[in-house]
Amino acid sequence: MYAFAMTEITPGPAPSGPPTDDPTALLLAVARERDKAALAALFSTFAPRIKSMMLKLGAGDALAEDLAQETLLQVWRKAHLYSPQRGAASTWIFTIARNLRIDQLRRQTNKPYEDLETLELASDAPLGNVLIERNQVIERVTAALKLLPREQSEVVRLSFINDMPQSEIAALVGIPLGTVKSRLRLAYERLRPLLEDLQ
Amino acid sequence: MINHHPDITTLMAFSAGTLDEAYSTVIATHLAMSEAGRETVRQIDAIGGALLTDEPEAAMSDSALDRLLGALDDEQIDVGRPERAPNALPLPLQSYVPGGLDAVRWKWTGPGVATADLPTRPGQKSRLMLLRVGGGRRVPEHGHGGQELTLILQGAYRDRFGVFATGDIADHDEDVEHQPIAEPGPDCICLVAVDAKLTFRGRLMRALQPLFGI
């Protein structure tokens, strides 16, 4: 069901393009220089993808677009808080979109993710420059996700992109909750060596 | 030193953002106490980042970029690093226990055992509560009606899985039965998230009934 989308991620043959195409470099330009052109470039890459993710929640076109817009506005507002040592730009933007999705759908009064972000900022440890590695990790994880058995990638996507609790995935796919968990666990074990390269 | 960590599928659900309020609060509180746990979640977050870059594109309306750029000048820049609240509890828990543990109003649940419900948004499928077990006291053996997350905030307890001390988390599914016994010394205080269908307190009361004739 996702096969068509997978063929059109990176235009051109080079796996890592010039610096201006690099999401992390763009995000740092927003952070350091308030570079609107860099934000526009991030918009063109991420807004349509965030909108696609939001549409999978059952959000209407207008709401999905608003949430994509708001994500990019938060990127502008929070860029100076981004630290490449903690993850690739795409990962950071995913977490912003995820937090907006939670606020929109669950209207929780607590803010557990923001609380943890605050803690992280308060305990800034100096780390080496791992900018390139972070982006390479994302490319490798993206490639590895495509190599997962379909039954594993299905539960991973339903969880992270479609925002489905594991119990709902079990009901949708028609498998016990324990099987959802074991498929997620297997997927994680496959991805783990790549994810641990983050360090 | 934290020895007991959440199940990886629980951390994946936290990273995906699909946990109920009670469960996500327990995990966030645990992560506030565990740098290793935060690093694991940072790694898992990259799955979301990779999937996002792999999403198909849903066309934005023609004016969307102009509207975004037009809005930027009015945007306030977030000031980071808000001051810590004057409360010794981990940050994700502070709004639930505003006066700290000393101000909690405990309900007697059994000999040496007390609980306090923490308010969550209505309509949740899970419940959040504090559990206090006196040093050397035991919680009656109990099963679980669903996933149960228990985070140790103070003191320690022991069961057949080992000793659980401050920062440790017990992540049990419905198949697990256990009988925690608080270690001698100060009260063991835990933050617990349970499936709302079968409340922990209700199950505790039932379990206590034949033992103590409550």
From TrEMBL, chain A:
Cited InterPro entries: RNA_pol_sigma-70-like, RNA_pol_sigma-70_dom, RNA_pol_sigma70_ECF_CS, RNA_pol_sigma70_r2, RNA_pol_sigma70_r4_t2, RNA_pol_sigma_r2, RNA_pol_sigma_r3/r4-like, WH-like_DNA-bd_sf
SUPFAM superfamilies to which the protein is assigned, alphabetical: Sigma2 domain of RNA polymerase sigma factors, Sigma3 and sigma4 domains of RNA polymerase sigma factors
Residues spanning the signal sequence: none
Keyword Cell division among record annotations: no
Domain of life: Bacteria
Keyword Transmembrane assigned: no
GO BP, sorted A to Z: DNA-templated transcription initiation
Keywords per UniProt: DNA-binding, Sigma factor, Transcription, Transcription regulation
Domain RNA polymerase sigma factor 70 region 4 type: 139-191
Residue ranges constituting the RNA polymerase sigma-70 region domain according to the UniProt record: 42-109
A Pfam family hit: Sigma70_r2
GO-annotated molecular function: DNA binding; sigma factor activity
Family: Belongs to the sigma-70 factor family. ECF subfamily.
NCBIfam families: sigma70-ECF
Name assigned to this protein: RNA polymerase sigma factor
TrEMBL record, chain B:
Domain ChrR-like cupin: 102-193
One Pfam family of this chain: Cupin_7
InterPro entries: Anti-sigma_ChrR, Anti_sigma_zinc_sf, ChrR-like_cupin_dom, RmlC-like_jellyroll, RmlC_Cupin_sf
Domain of life: Bacteria
CDD domains per the UniProt record, alphabetical: cupin_ChrR
Gene3D superfamilies the record matches: Anti-sigma factor, zinc-finger domain, Jelly Rolls
Family matches, as NCBIfam families: anti_sig_ChrR
Protein name in UniProt: Anti-ECFsigma factor, ChrR
High-level lineage: Bacteria, Pseudomonadati, Pseudomonadota, Alphaproteobacteria, Hyphomicrobiales
